[in-house]
Amino acid sequence: MSTNNEKKQTEAKEKKQRSRLFDETGKRLLREIKPLRGWIGLCAFLCLILIGCAVAAPELLGDLVNRLYDWVKDPVPGLARSLLPGLGVLLGVYALQAVITYGNSYLLNNVVSRFFCAELRIRLSEKLRRLPVSYVDKTPAGDVIDRMMEDVGNMADSIYGIVEILISGFLQMAVIAVILFITDWRMAIPVVLLSPLSVLLSAKMATLGEKHWDKHFNLGGELTALAEEAYTNYPTTKAFNREARLQEKYDELSLRHQRNGIFGNFLSSIVQPVIIFLDALAYIAVAVLGGWLIVHKGLAIGTVVTVIFFARQLSAPLERIAFGLSFVQHVKSAAKRVFAMLDLPEEEDPAGTVEAPTEGRVVFEHVDFSYDPEKPLIRDLCMEVKPGQKVAIVGPTGAGKTTIVNLLMRFYDVQSGRVLIDGRDASELSRAENRRLFAMVLQDTWLFKGSVAENVAYGSPEVSREEIERVCDQAYCDHFIRRLPQGYDTVISEDSTAVSSGQKQLLTIARAMLANRPLLILDEATSNVDTRTELLIQKAMDRLMGGRTCFVIAHRLSTIVDADLILVLRDGTIVEQGTHRELLDRKGFYYELFQSQYAI
Questions:
Q1: Tens digits of per-residue pLDDT, 152-200?
Q2: Do strands 519-523 and 438-441 pair parallel, antiparallel, or not at all (unpaired)?
Q3: Residues 6+ apart with CB under 8 A from 45
Q4: The CATH number of 358-437+549-600 is which of 3.20.20.80, 3.40.50.300, 3.20.20.150, 2.40.100.20?
Q5: pLDDT of residue 1
Q6: According to CATH, what is the number of the domain 23-342?
Q7: Centroid of chain to Cα 421
Q8: What long-range pairs does 2-6 form, CB within 8 A, spacing at least 24?
Q9: Which residues, including other chains, have CB under 8 Å from residue 332's CB and lie 6 or more apart?
Q10: Most buried in the list 382, 455, 486, 587, measured by CB within 10 Å?
Q11: Can you give the pLDDT at residue 17?
């Protein structure tokens, strides 16, 4: 019951927030554009010139109509000479209005919006770099991409709408209203009375579409994530004949995305016709009242024409305001997703540095850790790894092997206990300094689009080509690299078919060797390698890892028979430790694992 009440309270709070045009999200949008106030000030100045043109044109036109009307009543020579200067000025005003309108739109869309968009994407990129690995683990890549591209793009478009609302629209309305009263207060009343009604109606209808835009953008992130996942796992999808099911899931999400977009657009678009209708009522009222005043009060026809033109001009800012108010809701929905990412808590990072030289002694002291507080994983883990030892960590799936790697690399921090490196608490080091101690080869190979040489030198960009070739030769990569079309300059990527999965693994191992770090982590490094290549890797590792501390995490026990120390994990706890022969002689849990793999 309490959960339902909390849900209702949350929904009521969100509804109340949406009922306000500039809630916290709207105010933050205004704060975000504050650094661009110089450019926006220039846009405001251009808007003032446009308003001046909009005010001057009806006045000039009204004066020309009065002269023409006077001539009809009393024809005298020189009509053309009398009208041409005014017509020339009027043409110049309209030409200036066109030029300023183009310049203002160009400035807003191509300067201000682009700067705003680029700055936001840079901030998101920097934010992603500072977020903990747990965020990346839990968030689909497609959703992050959608926030950085689609949502930021929509936010950048908001600059134009906000300036139009706060500067051009309202200011132009105020100026026109003042001039209408100066020209003839009687005809100004119906126009001015209908204008606030139009603005209030626009604001009210604009808020109705926000919930649909919220759902629309969230579903857009899910769609991008699904598309990214489907493309990444395309061979698996084809192999299991899941194309139809994937298409159904995509169609279902796409339909919901479309429906919310339709409702949002409908509620946004219906505002403009309503404004046009109210403006038409004002226009009719002015025309009827003006005709009556001409006949019964002797009002000049030019004055009526001037007021009618101003009444018609009032529709333009009203329509812009209506569009801007509805667009702000659209943008706020995108901004919520961007701000939610920018406001995520960052991982704390001390400024400690490593004291050289590093021996490579690693100690776990009573370490506890779990990804889910309700499901304990690592409990009271204690172990000591001496400098230069080759330590293997084995155990069944879910025992916590890869978690130890995450703790060593500080992808996650221990929840209690300590991890010591050469007697110093790893939590006192900055994450960058901590990770400079380790070279790492994961079970999932990762290669970026670039040459073979660039991929091998990914962690050591300053090395020479000779060093790259030397390490590749020691990692048994050189022979197949030279058979590629351009050798070390062949362009490959993660999904490249130019090299096999085993060869990709060898390239990542060469990358780790070239980094020449004092500690090495191999997480299932031979899981995608055939038996012959596995033996070559073992020889290369024995030769290159002398004097360095090495952690090998593997399911295939044949890869770690020569380890100096084997730690056997079960349910997050070390249940056995020793050499391969010692553990077999004990006939404990390790013996059972070995027998399950190799016994006939």
A1: 887 776 666 666 666 677 777 777 778 778 877 787 787 777 766 776 7
A2: parallel
A3: none
A4: 3.40.50.300
A5: 43
A6: 1.20.1560.10
A7: 36
A8: none
A9: 23, 25, 26, 29, 210, 213
A10: 455
A11: 47
